[in-house]
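dumping this here so i dont lose it again. seq + smiles for pyridoxal-5'-phosphate
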Amino acid sequence: MNTIDTEDTLGLSFCERLPLAFTHGQGSWVWDEAGKRYLDFTSGWGVTCLGHAHPLITHALTRQAARLLQSPNAGFTYSPERAALLRLLQPLLPGELSALYFCNSGAEANDAALKLARKITGRSKIISTHGAFHGRSFNTLSVSRGPENAERYLPLLPAISFVPYGDGAALAQAMDSETAAVIVEPIQGEGGVQIAPEKYLHDAQRLCHAHGALLIVDEVQTGFGRTGKLFALQHSSTPLQPDILTLAKGIAGGFPFAAFAVTAAVRAQLHKDDHGGTYCGNPLGCALAHAVITHLVEHNIPEQVAHKGRQLLDGLHTLQHRHATLVREVRGLGLLCALEFHDATRARELTLRCADQGLLVVPTRNGIIRLLPDLLVSTADITTALAMLDGVLAEAR
Ligand SMILES: Cc1ncc(COP(=O)(O)O)c(C=O)c1O
């Protein structure tokens, strides 16, 4: 049995896949089992921020694997790798965030943030936004995608409400003295690259402050340079002050790792056993995150992402004009861009056509295609991707 047949027969797949199996990658490119190469504008769903098989990652991984793999931060001992990562990351955090906890996935970071917000405030209500995506654990599912998502798993976490994304007035109306937290993405990634107006996040912050609720900002997808700043919150002209910030995806360049950061005031209310996990803050993940973040900072990668993002977005605008009957809108910030079609049902077909031409893109649930290459992608590869997309759109018309 070949790879695809084996997975289909013996595995449990909960998603629709392309009939492709990749064996290896290099930089922004991956190769399938037949030896065909593809330009990867998915970066493993926004994760492999330094591209595939970056020597820095290979080196950090093998070096740490040969030293010590496991020493959990829920255990009895300290870890030099964890301490080094804390020292590196803490001064880079936006706003007044000053303490960190390392965990394993975006869902876990958000799950912990929601749980801790309830503990700290002693309140139950949590407000999320329509179109949000915060993960697939029970808590995070309960605050994802809006009420239409609820039916399969009822009853979900109680006391959750959803407001339209970007609508400060709706948020003001939903909040009261029972609100524990508002959870929001600065840009909804899975929601189709919806960019919040700057004022919205400030409104959310002001409202949380006024009601004694916590503001949880989810930068799982937008963090670590993806949008052209180290954190998307830093695009704001006046500093934003989340109480909890959640981070994952690019943090360790492809190794499963995540973090949440909190202010001193939140930290003061957290105690022994409030959160933990066997693999949380393991030395291997810490060593990788340290290598990746050091590279991002020392080489000014976010600034380069801003330039390349403009090239990509300008190119997408040209495609929109050229294929106006097909493309309704393009959006993006840094290397997180989207193409929205007049006919949402065509996104999957266009994704397949792109793959056929050798370009991998990410379809979202609402019929939008997302482009999120690695952060080191070359301008030449962006030009190549735009040319491939142009060909696909011309053919599809
Ligand atoms: C904004 C956001 N939050 C949370 C998650 C969940 O992260 P993970 O898949 O690592 O659990 C995602 C995943 O796409 C995301 O985009």
